[in-house]
Design goal:
111 residues, mainly beta, five-stranded mixed β-sheet, three-stranded antiparallel β-sheet, 1 helix
Length: 111
Protein backbone atom coordinates (compact mmCIF):
# COMPACT_ATOMS: atom_id res chain seq x y z
CA UNK A 1 0.00 0.00 0.00
CA UNK A 2 1.21 3.52 -0.65
CA UNK A 3 1.94 5.83 2.26
CA UNK A 4 -0.88 8.10 3.39
CA UNK A 5 -0.21 11.80 3.81
CA UNK A 6 -3.10 14.09 4.73
CA UNK A 7 -2.74 17.75 3.72
CA UNK A 8 -4.29 21.21 4.12
CA UNK A 9 -4.61 23.68 1.24
CA UNK A 10 -5.71 27.29 1.68
CA UNK A 11 -7.97 28.75 -1.01
CA UNK A 12 -6.12 31.38 -3.06
CA UNK A 13 -2.65 30.44 -1.80
CA UNK A 14 0.09 28.65 -3.69
CA UNK A 15 0.68 25.10 -2.46
CA UNK A 16 3.73 22.84 -2.63
CA UNK A 17 4.50 19.62 -0.79
CA UNK A 18 7.66 17.53 -1.05
CA UNK A 19 7.99 13.80 -0.49
CA UNK A 20 10.63 11.10 -0.25
CA UNK A 21 9.62 7.61 -1.38
CA UNK A 22 11.31 4.63 0.25
CA UNK A 23 11.18 0.91 -0.46
CA UNK A 24 9.73 -1.46 2.14
CA UNK A 25 13.36 -2.12 3.19
CA UNK A 26 13.77 1.60 3.97
CA UNK A 27 16.12 2.56 1.15
CA UNK A 28 15.34 5.29 -1.38
CA UNK A 29 13.01 4.27 -4.22
CA UNK A 30 14.78 5.27 -7.43
CA UNK A 31 12.36 7.33 -9.54
CA UNK A 32 14.75 7.75 -12.48
CA UNK A 33 12.80 7.32 -15.73
CA UNK A 34 9.42 7.67 -14.02
CA UNK A 35 6.69 10.11 -15.02
CA UNK A 36 4.60 11.47 -12.15
CA UNK A 37 0.95 12.47 -12.18
CA UNK A 38 -1.36 13.52 -9.38
CA UNK A 39 -4.94 14.68 -9.05
CA UNK A 40 -7.47 15.53 -6.40
CA UNK A 41 -11.20 14.80 -6.44
CA UNK A 42 -14.16 15.36 -4.14
CA UNK A 43 -14.49 11.62 -3.51
CA UNK A 44 -13.03 8.35 -4.74
CA UNK A 45 -14.50 7.61 -8.17
CA UNK A 46 -15.37 11.26 -8.91
CA UNK A 47 -13.90 13.17 -11.84
CA UNK A 48 -10.68 15.00 -10.97
CA UNK A 49 -11.21 18.50 -9.59
CA UNK A 50 -7.71 19.58 -10.61
CA UNK A 51 -4.30 18.20 -11.52
CA UNK A 52 -1.13 18.81 -9.56
CA UNK A 53 2.10 20.01 -11.07
CA UNK A 54 4.51 17.16 -10.27
CA UNK A 55 8.27 17.09 -10.54
CA UNK A 56 11.32 15.15 -9.48
CA UNK A 57 13.76 16.99 -7.24
CA UNK A 58 16.23 14.08 -6.78
CA UNK A 59 15.08 11.00 -8.69
CA UNK A 60 17.75 8.61 -7.39
CA UNK A 61 16.88 9.58 -3.79
CA UNK A 62 13.12 9.14 -4.40
CA UNK A 63 12.38 12.85 -3.91
CA UNK A 64 9.55 14.66 -5.69
CA UNK A 65 7.05 17.48 -5.22
CA UNK A 66 3.44 18.28 -6.02
CA UNK A 67 2.03 21.78 -6.33
CA UNK A 68 -0.90 24.00 -7.21
CA UNK A 69 -0.81 27.66 -8.19
CA UNK A 70 -2.97 30.41 -6.73
CA UNK A 71 -5.31 30.31 -9.73
CA UNK A 72 -5.97 26.59 -9.17
CA UNK A 73 -6.51 26.88 -5.41
CA UNK A 74 -8.79 29.90 -5.90
CA UNK A 75 -11.17 27.66 -7.83
CA UNK A 76 -11.42 25.04 -5.08
CA UNK A 77 -14.46 24.96 -2.79
CA UNK A 78 -13.97 24.50 0.94
CA UNK A 79 -14.18 20.93 2.13
CA UNK A 80 -12.60 17.49 2.07
CA UNK A 81 -10.99 16.01 -1.04
CA UNK A 82 -8.98 12.90 -1.82
CA UNK A 83 -5.76 12.77 -3.83
CA UNK A 84 -3.13 10.41 -5.11
CA UNK A 85 0.14 10.56 -7.00
CA UNK A 86 1.20 7.85 -9.45
CA UNK A 87 4.64 7.06 -10.86
CA UNK A 88 4.75 5.47 -14.30
CA UNK A 89 7.73 3.68 -15.85
CA UNK A 90 7.03 1.94 -19.15
CA UNK A 91 3.67 0.23 -18.71
CA UNK A 92 3.98 -0.09 -14.92
CA UNK A 93 2.07 2.39 -12.76
CA UNK A 94 2.52 2.57 -8.98
CA UNK A 95 0.62 4.78 -6.57
CA UNK A 96 3.36 6.35 -4.45
CA UNK A 97 1.30 8.51 -2.07
CA UNK A 98 -2.37 9.13 -1.32
CA UNK A 99 -4.49 10.84 1.27
CA UNK A 100 -7.11 13.41 2.11
CA UNK A 101 -6.90 17.15 1.64
CA UNK A 102 -8.80 19.72 3.64
CA UNK A 103 -9.36 22.89 1.62
CA UNK A 104 -9.89 25.95 3.80
CA UNK A 105 -11.33 29.27 2.70
CA UNK A 106 -9.91 32.52 3.94
CA UNK A 107 -10.88 36.04 4.80
CA UNK A 108 -8.07 38.01 3.08
CA UNK A 109 -8.08 38.51 -0.64
CA UNK A 110 -5.27 37.21 -2.82
CA UNK A 111 -2.49 39.79 -3.19
Amino acid sequence: YPPVSDLVINVGASFTCTYTVNTTAGSAYNLTGHTLSGQLAKHVGAAATCTFTCGLTDATAGKFYIGLGTHQTSELADGRYFYDVNAKSGTTVNRIVEGQIIVRGGISSTL
